[in-house]
Specification:
Blueprint (H helix, E strand, L loop, with lengths): L1 H15 L1 H36 L3 E6 L16 H13 L3 E9 L1 H11 L17 E6 L6 H8 L4 E6 L1 H43 L1 H9 L4 H42 L8 H27 L6
Antiparallel strand pairs: 1-3, 1-4, 2-3
Helix pairs in contact: 1-8, 2-6, 2-8, 2-9, 6-9, 8-9
Length: 303
């Protein structure tokens, strides 16, 4: 009997506030979709950082007779200078164990020809023009500046290059987009929260006499609040399901079908990250429904 009443009251509430309920569903749909996208964007940035930062090496290019670096004197790097440079690199606390690799002119030239095998520039470059170098892998790629400072001024060193100087602007831009998406999603979630509160407030105000009678006959607070709670939870769940479906469709067509095929060098978010994001979205949707419902209906529970 009580269940029939609750379900009947729920149906009446949905009919009375159909337009508001649809607006709540759409708002939650859009806000949770953007929120889930922001969560995946954060995961994607972390994956890209982990994928690239682990492979980052510092390249220490040695002098040739044509080099103009401050450690060069218009002559080829000497064996004594190379040994000194290698000693400084290996003694650095930031250098990974067995993380120093030398590259000769021949190896550099072979790599150059491999990279530009279809370019006419290959015929204009000789092996003698290549630079010897040391490739250094770090224990912590975040701490690259100490080693760069220690090596850059040594005699025989032409230039020191670190891939971070090219990756950091990219990751800063991605982090900026991520923050922007989170802020926009947060504003939409606040809008959804306010819309749910207004919907429940209007529904409770329209039935304030019924609520007063139920309180007088001894109905519990939870029993009175339950129809309103179910109404809000139903709207939130529908919006969350639509948002989760939108996120899965976006990941499948944008990431799995296009991005992974086009940019194979990157590691991309997949089913595991998307599933975690959808779980968070559903939980947030339920919180958006439950919290404002309890807070809004409390004032109408006093006789």
């Amino acid at each position: 009997m009580r269940l029939n009443y609750i379900l009947s009251d729920l149906g009446i509430g949905l009919k009375r506030n159909l337009s508001m309920t649809i607006a709540v569903v759409v708002t939650i749909w859009v806000s949770l979709s953007l929120f889930g996208s922001a969560l995946l964007a954060r995961e994607q940035v972390d994956l890209m950082k982990g994928n690239w930062y682990d492979k980052i090496q510092i390249s220490v290019f040695l002098c040739t007779k044509d080099s103009g670096g401050r450690g060069c004197s218009g002559a080829e790097v000497t064996t004594e200078q190379k040994n000194r440079i290698k000693q400084v690199i290996e003694s650095s606390p930031d250098t990974a164990p067995e993380g120093v690799f030398g590259e000769t002119k021949k190896e550099a030239f072979d790599q150059f020809r491999k990279l530009y095998k279809d370019s006419p520039i290959v015929s204009t470059v000789t092996e003698d023009q290549m630079q010897e170098s040391f490739r250094v892998k770090l224990k912590d790629p975040q701490r690259y500046q100490n080693l760069v400072s220690a090596v850059a001024g040594l005699p025989g060193v032409d230039t020191v290059q670190d891939l971070r100087q090219y990756l950091d602007p990219l990751f800063k831009a991605l982090n900026g987009l991520q923050v922007g998406a989170l802020v926009a999603a947060g504003l939409l979630l606040v809008a959804a929260l306010m819309q749910i509160s207004n919907t429940i407030r209007l529904a409770a105000y329209a039935r304030r006499r019924e609520i007063g009678i139920m309180r007088l006959v001894g109905a519990s607070n939870f029993y009175i609040q339950l129809p309103f709670l179910l109404e809000a939870v139903l709207a939130a769940l529908i919006g969350a399901v639509l948002a989760c479906g939108t996120l899965w469709v976006g990941v499948y067509f944008v990431v799995m079908q296009r991005a992974q095929e086009t940019f194979r060098v990157w590691q991309w978010v997949g089913a595991s990250e998307t599933f975690q994001a959808t779980l968070i979205m559903v939980v947030v949707g339920l919180i958006l429904a439950v919290v404002p419902t309890f807070l809004t209906t409390r004032k109408y529970l006093k006789v």
